[in-house]
Write a structure and sequence with these properties.
mainly alpha; 176 residues
């Protein structure tokens, strides 16, 4: 572009006119501005990439935690099944109880937990225990002594009240 507009003097040397120099400055300024803009965009992309990498690390950590939690839940479920099978086996072979309803097995498990003072601190789980014992109490074919079920129901109700009191005290905080 400039080469065509440049003129040569008597000695064959190329000479710039003042307006050619102004155009050259404008083009050079535009190129410098584009370079600075490109550097700025590169920095923004680097920052964005850093944020994405941090988010990816967080997601990977969350995934690892979920994976470990899932494995723990699976182990707990297997342990629960083994205990269920063991209880059924004991009842069948040691006590001659051939057929047990699922409700009876669950109720016996809750009573076992209560007898061995393996109390829960979770209100939902305690409520589930109460429902299990109440269902067994209402079942006319239950093989569990009704007085034992009533005693278990009272224990679970007391446990729920204790959980509620502890939660209330926890949220009340220290008095001023």
């Amino acid at each position: 572009m400039f080469k065509q507009d440049l003129s040569k003097n008597l000695f064959g040397k190329t000479v710039l006119k003042p307006d050619d120099l102004d155009r050259f400055k404008i083009v050079l300024g535009t190129m410098k501005k584009a370079t600075l803009q490109s550097k700025h965009e590169t920095e923004e992309l680097k920052q964005t990439l850093g944020q994405v990498k941090a988010q990816l690390a967080d997601i990977q950590a969350d995934y690892q935690n979920l994976k470990e939690t899932h494995q723990a839940l699976q182990k707990r479920q297997r342990d629960q099944q083994q205990l269920d099978y063991a209880m059924r086996d004991i009842l069948k072979n040691d006590y001659g109880v051939d057929k047990l309803s699922h409700t009876d097995v669950e109720a016996r498990y809750v009573l076992y937990k209560l007898d061995h003072e393996e109390f829960t601190e979770n209100k939902k789980e305690a409520q589930s225990w109460l429902n299990t014992l109440t269902s067994a109490r209402e079942d006319p074919d239950t093989k569990i002594a009704l007085t034992r079920l009533d005693q278990g129901i009272e224990q679970v109700k007391a446990l729920i009240n204790r959980i509620i009191e502890l939660t209330r005290d926890l949220f009340k905080g220290p008095s001023l």
